[in-house]
Amino acid sequence: MNKRVILSILVENYSGTLSKVSGLFTRRGYNIDSLNVAETQDPKISRITVAVTGDSYIIEQITKQLHKLINVIKITTLSEETSVQKELMMIKVSAVGNKRSEIMQIVDIFKANISYVNNKNMIVVITGSEDKNNAFLEMLKPYGIVEMTRTGPTALERC
Prior knowledge:
Layout: E1 3-12, H1 17-28, E2 32-39, E3 45-54, H2 56-68, E4 72-78, E5 83-94, H3 99-109, E6 113-117, E7 121-128, H4 130-140, E8 145-150, E9 154-157
Antiparallel strand pairs: 1-3, 1-4, 2-3, 5-7, 5-8, 5-9, 6-7
């Protein structure tokens, strides 16, 4: 049975490390649902957060192969129970005339932020769970989504 898993991978922060990690997925034919990479509090270490979907055998194989990479320091499988998971979503929505105040009410209800406004559009930023962000997106669709981007989940272990 396929399930979605989030892997938090600490790696040495060298040029080419991300290429090695993502290349492993490509060579094995595994799809990456989302990928986030950033330096940690130590500039010598980066955290790669990867969301993948597969059965337990595939997830086990991915983890075993990742452990073989020289730049990998630690791999943690994160669940919703053992971690804090959030994603960032930016949406450019059509906001002409009286639509603007209605959109602002929705933004307020979801505790999102308006980052940019002009006479035609506004850019709204929201962070939260995938479900919360999807619900927010559904509320904005009737106003006209011009463009959007989202990070996919990023996460930290609770303990």
